[in-house]
Structure formats: structure tokens, C-alpha cells
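[Q] Does anyone have a clean C-alpha cell version of this?
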Amino acid sequence: MSQKELFTFLYKGTENYPHEPVSNRIRHYGTMILPDMVLSDGTVIEGKLDGFIQEVSGGLVVPTFDKGEYTDFDFIEGLEYEYDDFIQETLADINERK
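[A] Here you go.
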């Protein structure tokens, strides 16, 4: 299964924060669609999370998505490498469109 079958990013827009303490901070806002999470009691939490992918000068990339008390990393257990690749591909797609 490819990353694009596991994950989807619904892009909403980009904001640049050039004057914050961390220089050249860029946030790409949107909704991340991840595999649903099943809790130990059988409760299913839908993997649709709002947030952003943040780029910071020096190449640091930080995906920040949440749904209540859960973050994107709670939904991708065991798929961390695939998720990281997907984030990189998504950023390349967004930056190519600019």
C-alpha cells in the first residue's frame, strides 16, 4: 500500500511567520486524513485531524495535527517512516505549486 493510499492531506493555505523567534517559519494548514484509530475498548476514532505542517529554516519539518487529546502520531503507530515520506512528498507538491 502506498503512502497516498494510507494518508491524504487536504491543503487549505500557507502562512509565513518571518519575524518570530524561529526565523522563516512557514505553516501549511489543512486536514490530514490518517487510518482510523481503534482504542482498547473497541471505540473507533476517525483519522481526520486539523492542523499544519511547519517548515523552519534549516530544514526542520514538524507535522502538527490533533483531534482532541490525540495527535497524528497516535494514529500512525507502526507507519512512522511511511508518514515521514508522505510529509516530504506533500511539502514538495505544495512548494512546486507556488
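[Q] Thanks! Anything notable?
[A] Residues 40 and 74 are 13 Å apart (CA to CA).
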